[in-house]
Every structure is written in structure tokens, then in C-alpha cells.
Amino acid sequence: MAESLRLSPRTKAEMTPEGDLRRAQRKLDPKVADRLARLNLAVNRAVEGFLGGRHRSPHTGVSVEFVERRPYVQGDDLRHLDWRAYARSDRLSIKRYEEETNLECTLVVDASASMAYAGDGELSKYDYACQAGMALAHVVLRERDGAALALFDHTLSRLLPPSTSPGQLSVMGESLVERDPEGVTDLSSVLGMLTERVPRRGIVVIFSDLFGDVSDLEQGLGFLRTRNHDVIVMHVMHDDEINFPFDRLTRFEGMEDDSRLLVDAPSIRESYKSVVAEWRNDVRRVCHRRGVDYVLLDTSKPLELTLSTYLGRRLGRLGRSR
Questions:
Q1: 3-state class of 88 per DSSP?
Q2: Is the pTM of this model over 0.85?
């Protein structure tokens, strides 16, 4: 008797007990936040405003040197509203100061249909990526740097501008909760769009299962690196995709197309794992060629351990390079 492995995207979360559970699974886990309390998102390369190490005025939050204005977004600190500009234009805007532009970190989360896969576990790949993104946003905002969020499938479906406000974490969380995985992936096109929308150098962290041609990934990473962004690829994979534990005749259904395949899973396990291992090696080689950090996010592993290990290693590498 065939076991059907359903790989279809979830519908929009509703206000039901199950929907409430999904909302909780995409928010920052306090255990993860506690584990990362003593770490920061170390920077691999010189980023605008970060050449001197830490912030020039960490206790005041902003410096006295005005830099520019930008449109107000929900979660911004109301103390920085430019009321004079509002009186002239009837549009809310925020005054940006030198301190606010120290560092901008854009968290880019894959919300395509394949990220909905959860196997028999509670967390989907998208849920896990959301928690990881919220954890890094927590680290960035705690250091009084700017955090931004981008969601994508074949296009950029949401781009939340950077903000240093503590309220930004809540705004980002709501954006992640409101979106359920759907659509197909187009990494090259999306990362090209992102490069145009985020012109100022900073850190770009990509959370994705990276399904698609490796050449598309390399081209997309190339776009970001030409702008000297410090890029980190967080490769989100489910344990089923890594170890292929299925032990019977199994029907697999595509999540981003209509393909179906009925196979005797045990008979192809070793060849499948070999192909996946080679694909991951190709991804790592592409990241290495482009000067990009590669991190595997295995959804079966504790997130706080994976992130704290990586950030600690990154911090140590930065210290040695100074």
C-alpha cells in the first residue's frame, strides 16, 4: 500500500486553533533569544558606517548629524517624525541620523510553496526560517542597527524598509505570520530585484531551500556582491530531504508544479542522498566563489544551537581579521 507524501502549500492561516499555532511557530522563540544574548552579527567586510567597529554613540541612539528623510512605516519611533515636513506635504516621514545608518541588515525569506513542507513534524521549513529570521533581527536591533525584511517567491512580495526601532521586531513578525508559502521560486530574478531595491551596502541574509538551478543562485549572489553586500546564505532543509527516511512504496507530489512520482523509497535512498550531497556541494562552491557564507539550517536541529555556533564562529573570524 502506497504512502502518500503530500507536498502541497498551506492555505492562508485562519483564526482557528491550527492558525494560532502557526502564528506562534513563526515568532521569536525566547529560548533562541536567550542563547543569542551575548552574540552579535559580526560583519565580514567593511560596511558603510561600520569601519570603526561599534557605534559612535551607543547610549543616545542617534547622533546629532542629520542625514536624510524616509517614509514612515509602522513600528518606527514616533519621536523621529518630521512634523514640519508633514505640515508641508501631509505625508509622514522619519528623520534619519548618522547613527541610524550605521548598519542595515536585510533578512530575505523564501515564501515559495516548497517552503511549506513539514513532514510529520510541527514546523515547516518556512516556520523554521521565520524563527531564524526573527532571531537575527533580535540580534541586529539589540545592537541598535537597522533591520529590514523581504519576502519572495518568483518576485519580491514584500519589502519592509530598515528601521532601528524596537517596534520593528513586531512589525516584521506580523509580516511573516500573514504570509503563507505559495508560488514558485526564481532566485536570480528576485536577488536582482533586491539589489536594485537595497542599494546601500549592508548585510543580506537569505533563508531559502534554494530549489532551482545552482546557476540562478550564483547569478543572483553575483548581483548582490557587485554592490559589496556582506551576504549569508541560510540553506533551510528538512531532515526528510537530507536523509530520505521513507521505508515503503511512496508517492511524491511536487509543491511548485504538478509532478507526481511513485517510487520504492528504500531502493533509491543511497542514490538520492548522493545526488543531494553533490547538489549541496555545488551550492557551497558557488557561495565560496562569490565570497558568501553558507550555513545549513536543518529543521531537525535546535535553532539556538545552529545560530549561536555560526555567529560565534563568525565573530571569531572577524576578530582574527582585524
A1: helix
A2: no
